[in-house]
Task: structure prediction
Amino acid sequence: MQPPQAAKRELYQASPSVGSVTRRAFWRLRASLWQSKFMALTQSLVGELAQQAGFTLGGIAAIPDSATAEGKQERARFAAWVEAGSAGEMDYLKRANDHGELLRASVHTAFPWAQSVIVCAANYSSHYPLSTHPSAPDAAWIARYAWSGSGERSAPGEAQRPSDYHKVLLKRLKAMESALHERCGDFESRCYVDTGPLVERVYARYAGLGWTGKNTCLLNQELGSWLFLGVILTSLQIASQELAMPAEDRCGSCTRCIDACPTQALTPYRMDASRCIAYLTIEKRGAIPPGDIGGDPREGIGRNVFGCDICQDVCPWNKRAGARTVPAAADPELAPREALINPALDWLASMSERDFGEWFFGSPVKRARFDGFRRNLAIAMGNSGLAHFIPTLHEWSNAPEDGLAQAAAWALRRLENRASADAETRTAS
Result:
């Protein structure tokens, strides 16, 4: 069904190039003309379609106008975070338009037509051990979101194929986008999983899916924080009665996530990504420096070789949700691969680059790259206290990759110093 031809012709002859306010008015007019003939966008419709697409939760939020107090606050908060150096080397977070405006600080900077954001969440909770549970000293830790694999096997007895939540969720968002076009008519839209010009958890809060915890993760009272987020930007307007009531902040006086962070990356509701273990083991390229405050982050990395779950593992809301949530194993596209739960450092270190590709191509782990992954393994070996890693570290300390060589040399010194201290203790006794 098309809008009246005269209105449509007049609409497309209008020029949205005069200024940002004029552009936003143009897109609001266009959205209202298209939307008037179709089903309205409602919270119940979004929730229904989200579950049909395979999501656990779905909600919708209006995009605040950049000129409002709320819009200015969001832009200022993100800009201050970037200016403080908290984004580390993640240059994609620092991208700006020709006017110097950060693209992720405001949706309207990149898409002046955007009127609403649909936010969908997929639960990846599981009943497997936490990183804070006791484990063998020669075991590594891979963040639980990266355990996922497809339940499908190409042949009986073969290992699960790796899956990447970015691709899984994007496919579901596209299916939901198509269903929305059938119900709501023609409108502008874009689907994103971690790649869009917005901070997903901010709009998840606007959509009523939860609150932002002190560890900066989205927290849902029933599901905790083990949630993947995906969004659909749309040009559809939302009636005021459909706006969600923001969830109450229920962190209270709790600071367990802040106290548990080994690298002091957290302060209440703010994370310094340049000190976060997830950033250091995934996004950071080359050598990991010793740091200038709060101790050497390499010691804090512990046995984490890809990502970190500590601030979520200690959260009381995740503990409460654990007994209630449906485990991710029920989702055939996000089923945990058991071989990646507390995997042996020796096994991971024995992987060739080809082995690494076979295990992790199509998995989030591939983002660390082979050299970065071995760098992380070297640091974990140094933190293990186990002398049997010394031969491997000697070999890696001569590697042509500077990041790996420096990490191995650091780990060697750490193990040798511990061995010397242990020898002195035995002599003294």
